[in-house]
Design brief:
Strands 2-1-5-4-3 form a five-stranded antiparallel β-sheet. Strands 7-9-10-12-11 form a five-stranded mixed β-sheet. It folds into four domains: 108 residues, no CATH class; 105 residues, 2-Layer Sandwich (Beta-Lactamase); 74 residues, Helix Hairpins (Orthogonal Bundle), CATH 1.10.287; 151 residues, Histidine kinase-like ATPase, C-terminal domain (Heat Shock Protein 90). A hairpin with a 4-residue loop joins strand 3 and strand 4. Helices cover 57% and strands 16% of the residues. The chain is an alpha+beta fold.
Length: 480
């Protein structure tokens, strides 16, 4: 109100200034003075508004009459033509003022519409950039409050029954109206507090309730926001379904690959057991030494078979994204030696060079899982290197961490494939049809390394490949 009074006083001062210049300082005729007054009215109308321009037009008409129409110095007009001129001046001033004000208002509305469109576009892009995996509705509410400069934005998701709030202000006491908007499509507004609640619809069906507190916005903008929120929620729902389908697909693929892998791996020990028992059954009277050797082979292969079953069950149970570990102090070199001793059947006649000559390296680890990870690395080396080539397995300390390395002299891994080696089910196109495998071993070893806050790396060039499993050394303070 105070600013309006100041603008009105400024308008009157403008009329006084034009009168002083046109009547005293630079005396001009009535027509020139009329144009000067008209320009002043248009300037004020385009700068401030209609009320200020009307006051300026009326005061300019009075001054025009008093100072420029005879008899000068009075508000009377002797010549009737001057009445027509004065009325024409007032009418022109008011019409021009109105048109200028309307043009200004339309320009302001066009700017506001452009800003609204820009905000809706920014909000739509923000929805597309929300990453999967977090709370999508919460991020949606936060982006809405940020883009439209809202004090509060609250989203009620009908599907989950949860409220998601964003913005610096509280929005309490209207949860029931928000729920009704999501369930039955009702609306609610509180103009005194700049609050509004509307339904978010997908087609004709309400799927959520949206509450906003902040600057007033046109209904078209509010509807545009609701439509974008509906699209965002439906996109999140589609992503959840896609993840569920992918999880089910991977679970089925895991089951199939494990069955295939077990069928392949079990053939060797079962064949040896069957050969030993068949020999005993076909020739029960053979020498004791021969019968003992057959029984020893059957016993060793049965133990081998048991180990394979245990590993297969362990692989099936492992959730690579969330592996639970039972940490105990473990001598890493001892664990490697025990593992290689237990894999003598798989190693067979292959030359394996064991390098564990350094000082003992004690790590805080789940020894069962660490052995499983190293087993995958050694099995990988046996598969992908020439039958007569040497495989080197060693333990060493590197930059304050313990490392187990497995080196084979195979063809090497192309750089383009090295970044994908630890992906679940990934197998190189160049070997997947020639060498059996599930594509799970390296991904499981990688998951076990990360569960121990360690890492699994690969360094490969033509003729040599080294996998290195790094684990943190146990600190003295870690021991009970």
């Amino acid at each position: 109100m105070r600013s309006l009074a100041l603008r009105l006083l400024s308008s009157l001062a403008g009329v006084s200034l034009v009168t002083l210049v046109a009547h005293k300082l630079l005396p001009v005729n009535a027509s020139t003075a009329g144009f000067a007054y008209l320009i002043l009215v248009l300037l004020i109308a385009s700068t401030w508004g209609f009320i200020e321009s009307v006051v300026t037009a009326v005061s300019a008409t009075i001054a025009y009459n008093f100072f420029f129409f005879p008899p000068i110095g009075t508000l009377t007009i002797a010549d009737p033509l001057n009445w027509v001129a004065l009325f024409s001046f007032l009418t022109t001033s008011l019409v021009a003022s109105r048109l200028s004000t309307r043009t200004k208002q339309q320009a302001r509305e066009a700017v506001e519409r452009r800003q609204d469109v820009e905000r809706l576009y920014t909000f739509s892009r923000a929805i597309l950039l929300i990453e999967a995996g977090g709370s999508f509705p919460k991020e949606l509410a936060a982006k809405l409050a940020e883009v439209f400069n809202l004090g509060t934005a609250v989203l009620f998701d009908r599907r989950t029954g949860e409220y998601f709030r964003a913005g610096p202000l509280d929005f309490d006491g209207l949860d029931e109206q928000l729920r009704d908007a999501a369930l039955s499509g009702t609306s609610f507004s509180d103009a005194s507090r700049n609050r509004i609640i509307t339904a978010v619809r997908l087609g004709a069906e309400p799927i959520a309730g949206l509450a906003l507190q902040g600057p007033q916005m046109p209904d078209a903008v509010l509807q545009g926001i609701a439509n974008l929120v509906a699209i965002g929620l439906e996109r999140a729902k589609a992503q959840d379904l896609a993840h569920q389908v992918e999880a089910a697909k991977q679970s089925e693929q895991l089951r199939t690959t494990l069955i295939d892998a077990m069928a392949h791996e079990f053939k060797t020990p079962l064949t040896s057991i069957r050969a030993a028992t068949s020999s005993l059954l076909s020739a029960p009277d053979q020498p004791v030494e021969a019968r003992f050797e057959m029984l020893r082979i059957a016993d060793e292969e049965a133990e081998h078979l048991r180990t394979l079953i245990d590993d297969a069950v362990e692989m099936a149970r492992l959730d690579i994204s969330n592996i639970e570990v039972d940490l105990q102090p473990s001598n890493l070199g001892t664990a490697v030696c025990e593992l290689i001793e237990g894999m003598h059947n798989e190693i067979d006649e292959r030359p394996v060079l064991l390098d564990c000559a350094g000082p003992p390296l004690v790590v805080s680890a789940d020894q069962r899982l660490v052995k499983l990870a190293i087993r995958q690395l050694l099995d990988n080396a046996l598969k992908y290197s020439p039958p007569a080539s040497t495989i080197t397995v060693g333990v060493r300390e590197i930059d304050g961490v313990a490392a187990v390395y497995v080196t084979n002299l195979g063809n090497g891994i192309p750089p383009s494939e090295q970044t994908r080696l630890f992906d679940r089910f990934y197998r190189s196109p160049s070997v997947k049809t020639r060498i059996p495998g599930s594509g799970l071993g390296l991904s499981i070893a990688f998951g076990i390394a990360r569960a121990h806050k360690g890492e699994l790396t690969v360094c490969s060039s033509p003729g040599e490949t080294t996998f290195q499993l790094k684990l943190p050394l146990e600190q003295k303070g870690d021991r009970p």
